[in-house]
Amino acid sequence: MAPVCWACRLSLLWLLFWLSALFLNCYSLLTYDRQALLDIRNSVASSFTNSYTLDVDCSFNKTDESFTSAVPGHIRRWPLSIPRRKRRRKRGNRGGYIVKLKAHLRAGFLSDHSHESLYGGSATWRPRDVAYRWLRHVLPVHPSPVFRSGLLRIGLGSRRRGVTHRNLRTLERASSSPVIIPPPKMALLNARSLVNKTFLLNDFYLAHNLDFMFITESWIKVGDLTPFSELIPADCTFFNSPRPSGRGGGIVTILKNALSARCRLVPGTAFSSFEAQFLHLDWNGPVCLVVIYRPPHSTKDFIQHFTELIGNIAANYDRFLLVGDFNIHVCCPSNPLSHEFLNIINAFNLSQWISDSTHILGHTLDLVLSYGFDVTDVVLSDFLISDHKPILFTLSLPELSYSSSTTVSLSRFYSPQFSTNFNLCFAECGSQLNLDQPLSDLDADQHLSLLNSAWLKAANATAPLKPHKQKTKSALWQNSDTRLLRQTCRKAERKWKQDRLHISLQMFRDSLTSYQTAAKSAKAAYFSNLIETNHSKPKVLFSIIQSVTNPSVNTLSVASDALCENFLRYFSDKITNLRLGVCPTLTLAISPIMSPASAFLDAFEPINLQELKEVIDNLKPSFCPSDIIHPKFFKLVIDSIGPGLLSLVNKCLQTGSVPADLKVATVTPLLKKPSLDPTVLKNFRPISVLPFISKVLEKIVLNQLQHFMTSNSIYEVFQSGFKSAHSTESALLRVLNDIYLSTDSGDSVVLILLDLSAAFDTIDHSLLLSRLESWVGLKANALKWFHSYLSDRTFLVKLGNFSSSPAPLTCGLPQGSILAPSLFSLYMLPLGSILRKHGVSFHFYADDTQIYLPVKKNNSTAISSLLQCLEEVKLWLAQNFLFLNEDKTEVIVFGPNENSQCKSPELESLSAFRSSRVQNLGIIFDQHLKFDRHIASVIGSSFYQLRLLSKIKNFLTPKTLEMAVHAFVTSRLDYCNSLYCGISKCQIARLQLVQNAAARLLLKCRKHEHITPILRSLHWLPISQRIDFKILLFIYKSLHNKAPVYLSELLHSYTPSRSLRSCDQALLVVPRARLKRRGERAFAVAGPRLWNTLPLEIRLAPSLSIFKSLLKTFLFSLVY
Predict the structure, then answer these.
(1) Do 1050 and 1070 form a contact (C-beta atoms < 8 A)?
(2) 175 pLDDT more than 60
(3) Helix/strand/coil for 478
(4) Strand partners, 855
(5) Angle 161-162-168 (CA atoms, 0-180°, nearest 5)?
(6) Which residue ranges does the record assign to the Reverse transcriptase domain (predicted)?
(7) Residues 6+ apart with CB under 8 A from 43
(8) Largest CA distance in the chain
């Protein structure tokens, strides 16, 4: 009992000691001597006074009588306090030390005035006032009222919850940070058809975090890219090398977008014994990657071809990798083919890294060969994608380190209440900037700057710029079922790897098949719902279909300021070299037939607010990086910003000036074709955009300029580019009409197609201003406005967040501008007078020039006149800085009939450019005018589109599928189909096959089902009637001034010499023709003949829509 009694007594003594310390206000101190504690106090006080200069009463400088008060608060602790068990509660983000610190400071600084400091004075110490040992006082212990109000202002004394945003400051990001790229992880597998394994391979690529995946036996046909929309992950791209002909074969490489700038597809020698894909990888020097697939029975010449392949690669690369399915049993050295193959490997000192069997039958068929580096982490996966095992490996290459700018993209996020909030904020900003006062004393640049500052202030208040990080698009079609099935696949795979039982293997295979089926169904349902939601938006609909049928490929290198500068120099040097190559120093003078202006335009008329709103509403809302507000939302707030913008526009029109900020173009490089090499700058074309305000101003000027030129007949009649009611089909219809009539009379016709290189970019500004003054009649402020518009223009190249420095635009018309097409047509006005002077027929479509001339038998003067005309045209083009590309100049001669045996005219110097087939505005002309080659091209492209649509028809509703068929197939059949008038029935039947196939696809009919009821149910006109429909539509438009003048002048109303019943029948004169395959195919002959066969009510239709409806009903009744 003694030990127990002593224990009880000790506990009682400790309890009494603790109570005495609590009620007698005594303190327990750490075992430090007094002088050490005073030194600590002084050091803390001095550090505080040196760091802060606040006018407060600092208690550190006072000397208290009490010994305990001299001890700093961060040292004093009560060691005998009973630790209470803390109640666990969820604090979220507010349960950390910052919350405790605020509570601690609030308790010390914001206490009632009746109490003294927590760590001094006569206030009774409370056990709950805990002073953490890790907290150090950096603020005064006795704050003054001024300092206390400052604490409340900065948020330390605030009792409101949440974040005080005014206390936050944006931290500057590092300009660059080193990026480490580890050695690439790769996989090689034989797929034996990608079509039914796309989702499985996609999951395999992501699960192993691969950089490259090489796939052999893809079985993808040429031009079929639909499976890649399911196969390629969101942040990856691919290289596809299908077998050129036949079935099977094919090689695909999948790689990350981050490596696409370092890896590119390069052309290589084609071998008959195997397929190969050649890749060039930049990894601390060039590395060649070759993927090979050798068919099993292709043994002839393989050893020779493979030796030649290695020899070519070794001569150009110090490091290379060869992977693929060789179908050679290297595990059996006694095999003759294997023995020779292994000897070649040893002869070239290649390293072979596969030692285990890669086929389910126990043979080693898939190989990884390297030279100049090692291959590590070789693993044969048990993933059952085919009868070949996937091979995982890593190249033993050094890590790459480079500096990458960590720029953040800033974007405006517009809320649904943006327009309301912007209007209120802009009204306040306008009153502060005095926008409601007259601004007549400001020039256009100052006026625009004032408006921009007000717009920017209001936009920042209502839609501030926020960091926007591009996120990798996840598979939106994934749902809970597909995720569960993917987990089931993982479990089945682990179970099979553990027990290696056949039943486990079968379960694993069944789970893979179930996941592939479910994923395909889920994606089909997702796209079907997406398409159905956007079925009324053709642009969105077509982009969705295009993303499925032709998935995009990353074609641009990693963006940087240096790359933007390279593009800037290339685009500038290209134009400079073209201008230097046109020989502007020619001294031979040209005296074209002058057309002095009969009317003059001195100034542009100011507009009102309603006209400004109409112009803005009709403009396409294309965004430019320099726009403060996106044009889509700019239209929503036009009521508030319209008066200020109207004042600026009228000032520009009246003073003849254009602000400098509106003359800066932003250029984005765009690859011309996906198959081109993205590392070559010449494969890109510049796409330029201008500020939205600039387009508004240009549209207003264009409307007034077009009205003036149309009223005074200044436009070139035979210019069909960029003019309303004009098209490529109307231009070709007139050219072919003249050719048919000339050949019908027994003459031959020489057609010359001239090609101008970068015509819009080489125009001389001084010559253009001279043309506007002398040919158009612009004077005073109108001419001054164009002078300001063309002078001091600049452009810069922008790629994402990177941009180049601005460069001057000393020549050419700004791309993306509304005025550029019309200005180019005016620049080309003198060329028409030169051609008329020589009696040569011509037609322009923008910068595409067609020159044609009838040539009679044994008439050499016509050819001499044509050659003389061409020399003068070349001279004029050179003097006007337009570069004629003679390599693309083509000449074709049309005979009087299809089977003409007459001697063709001697073309002299033009004989080198003569061809039997030319492409003119998208139509292939042949010298017999049969259009067989063009129709074959249309049929091939149409069936290709049908095959793509057949692969996604499960995604589309019947209505949406019909829209897609019309967009991708019918549009090809109807393009310039009026030119098919008079072609053979055989060619018509070939085109009809395409329409029949489209109808069967749409209604899911069988191949041999009769087509007439199908077409009738769809209410489709057959091909022959569609041709007649198009010709009659041109006739109606020509008679009602809705077609080009050069077509209207070919038609003449029938007026009998005496009073007959046909006087008021709206008939047309049908010219006589000699040949059915020539003259009767001319628009001037075939059109009136078809017109006169129509019922009177159709010919007298009051409107175009009624005419089209009646005409289709009439033709439909004739067929069905």
Answers:
(1) no
(2) no
(3) coil
(4) 748
(5) 130
(6) 651-925
(7) none
(8) 152
- Is residue 1060 exposed (0-12), middle (13-18) or buried (19+ Cβ within 10 Å)? exposed
C-alpha 391/C-alpha 378 separation (Å) is 7
Mean pLDDT of all residues belonging to the chain: 81
Lowest mean pLDDT: which of 1-10, 661-670, 998-1007? Answer: 1-10
Strand partners, 1059: none
Query: What would the pLDDT profile of 343-367 be if each residue is shown by its tens digit?
Result: 999 999 999 999 899 998 888 999 9
Residue 289 in contact with residue 258, Cβ under 8 Å? no
pLDDT of residue 1106: 95
Report the C-alpha gap between 514 and 665 in whole angstroms: 53
Instruction: Please answer whether residues 955 and 528 qualify as being in contact, where contact means their C-beta atoms are separated by less than 8 angstroms.
Output: yes
- Average of per-residue pLDDT across 252-276: 88
pLDDT at 58: 38
The DSSP secondary-structure symbol of 197 reads S
Q: Calculate mean pLDDT across residues 414-429.
A: 85
Q: What is the pLDDT of residues 464-493, one digit of tens each?
A: 888 766 655 556 778 888 889 888 988 888
Measured at the CA of 512, the angle between CA 508 and CA 518, to 5 degrees, comes to: 140
Asked whether the predicted pLDDT for residue 441 surpasses 80, the reply is no
Question: What's the distance, CA 428 to chain centroid?
Answer: 39
Residue 639 CB-density burial (10 A; 0-12 exposed, 13-18 middle, 19+ buried): exposed
Please give the Cα distance from 710 to 599 (Å, whole number).
12
Sequence-distant (6+) residues with CB within 8 A of 207 are: none
With CA atoms as reference, report the closest residue to 417 among 643, 165, 630, 637: 637
Q: In this structure, which amino acid lies at residue 792?
A: D
Q: Where are the alpha helices (DSSP H) in 656-720?
A: 692-711
Strand-pair partners of 251:
216, 241
CA distance 647 to 639: 14
pTM of the full structure: 0.74
CA distance 200 to 493: 13
- Which pLDDT does position 1013 carry in this prediction? 92
Looking at residue 45, its pLDDT comes to 52
Question: Does residue 115 register a pLDDT over 90?
Answer: no
Residues with Cβ < 8 Å from 384, sequence gap 6 or more? Answer: 505, 508, 509, 512
Question: And the tokens for 946?
Answer: 């049908």
What's the length of the chain?
1120
Backbone φ and ψ for 292, nearest 5 degrees, come out as -125, 140
Residue 898's nearest CA partner among 1082, 1083, 744 is 744
Q: Tokens 């693309």 label which residue?
A: 888
Residues near 656 by Cβ (< 8 Å), separated by ≥ 6? 603, 780, 781, 782, 783, 784, 785, 787, 788
Residue with tokens 């996120």, as numbered in its chain:
471
CA–CA dist 148, 620 (Å, integer): 57
* CA 373/CA 321 separation, integer angstroms: 9
Residue 932 CA to residue 923 CA, distance in Å, equals: 11
Q: What is the DSSP code string of 17-32?
A: HHHHHHHTT-----S-
The answer to whether the CB of 740 falls within 8 A of the CB of 1079 is: yes
Residues 6+ apart with CB under 8 A from 716: 825, 828, 829, 832, 844
DSSP class per residue in 241-273: E--SSSSS--EEEEEEHHHHTTEEEE-----SS
Tell whether the model's pLDDT for residue 110 goes beyond 80: no
What does the pLDDT look like over 180-220, one tens digit per residue?
888 999 999 999 988 888 888 988 998 899 999 999 999 99
Show the tokens assigned to 985: 């029935």
Q: Which tokens is 52 given?
A: 């802060």
Region 75-83: mean pLDDT is: 44
Q: What is the pLDDT of residue 1085?
A: 95
Residues paired with residue 291 on neighbouring β-strands, in sequence order: 277, 323
pLDDT of the residue at 81: 44
Q: Is the torsion defined by CA of 968, 970, 976, 980 positive or negative?
A: positive
SS3 293: strand
